[in-house]
Amino acid sequence: MQGEHWYWRRIRPTEQACAARIGTRTADLRQESTAGLQGEDGRTGPWTEGVEMVRSGVATLVKAGLTGGLLTVAGFAFLAPAAHADGWVTWKNARTGGYMDNYQGRTGNGNPIIHWPGNRGNNQKWWSATHSDGSKAYINAGSNKALDGDARYCFAPMVQWDWHAQANQRWWRHTVQGGYMLQRAQGCSGYRPLVISVTDTSRGSQLYTQEQRTINNSAEPQQRWK
């Protein structure tokens, strides 16, 4: 491990199932080693059961458990969970009551993101992580793919894709009356900020980015999430 940077975090045994890796290279996740490692909190410790380690670098993420504290990996700060802070989140649309959903839980790149009645499935759960600039990434619990507003379009269909940290996978979460707006970090010249919207209220319709619209200092219901 000489010359590489590793981070570790202790988690409660009951949370080990939540500490699964998000990303690509499986071989990068675990090292069978008892060497002391420097933690982000300044402590050192060996590789033991209940400790998650990942190598820092591009395309390496980890769900760091739910015990609080701070762990930084590949430009992300993973924080203790709170309401729509880092941790597991769901997003319910104020207009339809449907949840942001990875269609049929499929795992392939380009699978549509739709709105669907709540079912508590992993296809409706998202791991929220904060980039160093404050923008968010949302990783689907079932597929380990990132929420992606197709970079080829201003009014983009929402899909999932392997995480690459480009602007079409970064989201600014704006607090509005009654919820939040989720703005794509990648903008389009000549348009207002682009936010995730319900464009068709039919159950199972795909989500799109649209220009931000407000009513009385709040987002229009189809653009408001809670």
TrEMBL record:
Domain Ricin B lectin: 85-148
Pfam families reported for this sequence: RicinB_lectin_2
Record lineage: Bacteria, Bacillati, Actinomycetota, Actinomycetes, Streptosporangiales
Organism: Actinomadura rubrisoli
InterPro entries: Ricin_B-like_lectins, Ricin_B_lectin
Name of the protein described by the UniProt record: Ricin B lectin domain-containing protein
Entry-linked SUPFAM superfamilies: Ricin B-like lectins (SSF50370)
CDD domains reported in the protein's UniProt record: beta-trefoil_Ricin-like
